[in-house]
Write a structure and sequence with these properties.
The protein is built from 2 helices and 4 strands. The protein has a single domain (3-55), classed as Alpha-Beta Plaits (2-Layer Sandwich), CATH 3.30.70. The strands form 2 sheets. Strands 1-4 form a two-stranded antiparallel sheet. It has helices at residues 14-18, 43-47; strands at 3-5, 24-26, 31-33, 53-55.
Length: 57
């Protein structure tokens, strides 16, 4: 499992700034988390102001 960013993303960049591994990058419509490198720490989800980050299950 890994965290994923939903379409509710505002592209504010808060998640990317918070990720301790630096694996969140800006995509065309929203930020994207590299699922293969995600360690599920949850720091991105906790920092997201619009709760656009969910644990993929």
């Amino acid at each position: 499992m890994a965290y994923t960013i939903t379409d509710a993303c505002l592209k504010c960049g808060t998640c990317a700034d918070t990720c301790p591994l630096g694996i969140i990058t800006e995509g065309d419509d929203k930020y994207v988390i590299d699922a293969e490198q995600c360690v599920e720490c949850g720091s991105c989800a906790a920092a997201c102001p619009v709760e656009a980050i969910e644990l993929q299950g």
